[in-house]
């Protein structure tokens, strides 16, 4: 796959971006870019699993117009793995059918682009590769990931790509002796969706409210009919005064909250 991007002011040439699977020969560069971009340090086993495809799928971006024999060197990457829906921490955000234990998810582990190649649409293209991969797996219901709370560019990117921010997780990360919150983002595929979307929740609450009002009105009306009348019957209709009552609303389905 080729992507002819606009020239970045940090580059002295017009980049020609190509996307391919990550290979064993990418190990050293992959480790370096991770070290340059992320405050979290990954074990060497993680990188070995990536380049050898052991439980991890990955895509790399290279610049075919890069000079000095570096036209096949990684300048961006995304890594992900398959997770069983029943074993994930987002099961409550899925319309999960327990009878279908084979339902899966794709969890994005890391995504990064070298500084000199940022703002060229490379990160978006890498995410599209993951979404396309997930969409081609019949049992897959969603792509999901976590973003540290202060990473505003990443948060903006995922929202722009229609990922749903469904939860803020306090103290999710522990970096250099300090805790940081994280946001959980989900992109549904293959008909997967939230157990109750915001629109569906509003409809449910309105329906429950109408149903509750009708039931209460019927009970009050029946009660009034049973009382001996102190007044002669009249053809004019009387008005029913509102009564105070306690209404318990279930928030069990209200799992989608945007932050």
Structure description:
The chain has 259 residues and is α+β, with helices and mostly antiparallel strands. The protein folds into two domains: 17-188, Gcn5-related N-acetyltransferase (GNAT) (Aminopeptidase, 3-Layer(aba) Sandwich), CATH 3.40.630.30; 196-223. Helix content is 28%, strand content 26%. The chain contains five helices and eight strands; from the N terminus they run E-E-H-H-E-E-E-H-E-H-E-E-H. The protein has helices spanning 27-37, 44-52, 122-135, 152-160, 198-226, and strands spanning 2-4, 16-20, 57-63, 74-84, 104-113, 140-148, 164-175, 178-188. Strands 1-2-3-4-5-6-8-7 form an eight-stranded mixed sheet. The longest helix has 29 residues, at 198-226. The radius of gyration is 27 Å and the shape is globular. The chain starts with a strand and ends in a 33-residue tail after the last helix. The model is unreliable at 201-205 and 227-259 (pLDDT under 50). GO terms for molecular function: histone acetyltransferase activity; protein N-terminal-methionine acetyltransferase activity. Keywords: Acyltransferase, Chromatin regulator, Chromosome partition, Transferase. It catalyses: L-lysyl-[protein] + acetyl-CoA = N(6)-acetyl-L-lysyl-[protein] + CoA + H(+); N-terminal L-methionyl-[transmembrane protein] + acetyl-CoA = N-terminal N(alpha)-acetyl-L-methionyl-[transmembrane protein] + CoA + H(+).
